[in-house]
């Protein structure tokens, strides 16, 4: 049975994201108009603060080890519509207006392949 106390993490009004050991939290970007899932990346506290401050989405680049302003180089900016957190505050959802492609491959979404099972093999097929 769910805990309904007002101070439980599921009911609190306090934003207390549960970062992993590296200080990161998964962030899913969703197109605010279509509902399509565009990409998944990581945020740290600085990325969350910068996103809310500028209304343009920032992530933490694990490969570069630095704050990443999505689209700063490509022009494929994600403008924040709203930010949400899941029930136990360990995943962030950013609803965005996407300018250009979301994926570094030039596609609208990073989720452009579907996993299927053919005989006893898992394969990837186009489509999402």
TrEMBL record:
It comes from the Bacteria. Its main location: cytoplasm. The keyword Zinc applies. Mg(2+) binds at residues 86, 88, 90. Its EC number is 3.5.4.19. Keywords: Amino-acid biosynthesis, Cytoplasm, Histidine biosynthesis, Hydrolase, Magnesium, Metal-binding, Zinc. GO terms for cellular component: cytoplasm. Binds 1 zinc ion per subunit. Zn(2+) binds at residues 87, 103, 110. It catalyses: 1-(5-phospho-beta-D-ribosyl)-ATP + H2O = 1-(5-phospho-beta-D-ribosyl)-5'-AMP + diphosphate + H(+); 1-(5-phospho-beta-D-ribosyl)-5'-AMP + H2O = 1-(5-phospho-beta-D-ribosyl)-5-[(5-phospho-beta-D-ribosylamino)methylideneamino]imidazole-4-carboxamide. It is found in: Cytoplasm. It is an enzyme of class 3 (hydrolase). One of its GO terms (molecular function) is magnesium ion binding. Its cofactor is Zn(2+); Mg(2+). Pathway: Amino-acid biosynthesis; L-histidine biosynthesis; L-histidine from 5-phospho-alpha-D-ribose 1-diphosphate: step 3/9; Amino-acid biosynthesis; L-histidine biosynthesis; L-histidine from 5-phospho-alpha-D-ribose 1-diphosphate: step 2/9. Residues 39-112 form the Phosphoribosyl-AMP cyclohydrolase domain. GO terms for biological process: L-histidine biosynthetic process. NCBIfam families: PRK00051.1 (NF000768). Homodimer. Catalyzes the hydrolysis of the adenine ring of phosphoribosyl-AMP. In the N-terminal section; belongs to the PRA-CH family. In the C-terminal section; belongs to the PRA-PH family. This is Phosphoribosyl-AMP cyclohydrolase. It comes from Aquisalinus luteolus. The lineage of its organism: Bacteria, Pseudomonadati, Pseudomonadota, Alphaproteobacteria, Parvularculales.
